[in-house]
Amino acid sequence: EKFKILITEHIAEPGIELLRKQPDVELTYDPELFRNFERILEIIPEYDALITRSGTPVTEELLERRKKLKVVGRAGVGVDNIDLEAASRRGILVVNAPTGNTLAATEHTMGMMISAARLIPYAHKSLKEERKWDRKKFMGVELAGKTLGIIGFGRIGSRVGIRAKAFDMKVIAYDPYIKREKAERLGVELVDDLEELLRRSDIITVHTPLTDETRNMITKREIEKMKDGVILLNIARGGIINERDLYEALVSGKVRAAAVDVFTKEPATDNILLDAPNIIVTPHIGANTFESQTNVAVIIANQVLSALRGEEVEFA
Ligand code: MLT
């Protein structure tokens, strides 16, 4: 009997192809299915494996319906859409592709940082859509000489740090889970407490997973401790920076500008942040490069195959 694999979101072709050519696999690729949770609940009992991105909520309710589900594969890094505890209680493996889209997220962060510092999308809109030639209005700040505070100095945070240094920024980082030497080797100063980072940084970017520990890590209270005119970036997960508090800080001008790719509830077409001034937003496209999506699709396909065949895999 073949392994039945269900994919509920868009995954790059090389990963699909890899699965299709396996003689022991029967693949259902339905990239829009994540929009129809009820349907997923209905059909999940037939499947041995489920592959998702961040749009499919892999809840206890869904896992409970499984009959033979052995593995959930997350084509990406963040597993916050999966109830890990509920999966583990049922003996269902959860695997991800943590290295595949590191560079895409890093580069999107750099793009968002420059966009926020110079309000590039606002200038673009003014010229292209409003046909205005307004050179006075768009005054930005330079990155060189400024202090970048990185919260979460893992795969993505550390690469953002390396790139920021090439822009002549001073880089400091807060991450209780990494060794001081790792930061020092890269010429980055690791600070012992979050408060110090908040106080010293001109630009702050978060690169942590979303967990109980990081949800609402940045609220009104933390924003008050920051420099006036700070720039904030969230290319990690919605909710690490409290959305309402960020909105208010943008309105008051305490935060000069922000750039946000991720939201507490996605699709985020009516999020409060869309009404804030000086905010650059993108629809969770941090991982969207051809290179990354190919990497992630191939990695997750291999991870899921290994898990199904009882070979060794690394858990998420
Ligand atoms: C990830 O966690 O890998 C990203 O958010 C990318 C995605 O969900 O597509």
TrEMBL record:
Keywords (A to Z) from UniProt: Amino-acid biosynthesis, NAD, Oxidoreductase, Serine biosynthesis
BP GO terms, sorted: L-serine biosynthetic process
Species of provenance: Balnearium lithotrophicum
Reactions accelerated catalytically: (R)-2-hydroxyglutarate + NAD(+) = 2-oxoglutarate + NADH + H(+); (2R)-3-phosphoglycerate + NAD(+) = 3-phosphooxypyruvate + NADH + H(+)
A molecular function GO annotation: phosphoglycerate dehydrogenase activity
Presence of the UniProt keyword Amino-acid biosynthesis in the record: yes
Similarity section: Belongs to the D-isomer specific 2-hydroxyacid dehydrogenase family.
UniProt superkingdom: Bacteria
Enzyme Commission designation: 1.1.1.95
Protein name: D-3-phosphoglycerate dehydrogenase
Included stretch of the parent chain: 2 to 317 of 533
Pathway field: Amino-acid biosynthesis; L-serine biosynthesis; L-serine from 3-phospho-D-glycerate: step 1/3
Record has Heme as a keyword: no
Function of the molecule: Catalyzes the reversible oxidation of 3-phospho-D-glycerate to 3-phosphonooxypyruvate, the first step of the phosphorylated L-serine biosynthesis pathway. Also catalyzes the reversible oxidation of 2-hydroxyglutarate to 2-oxoglutarate.
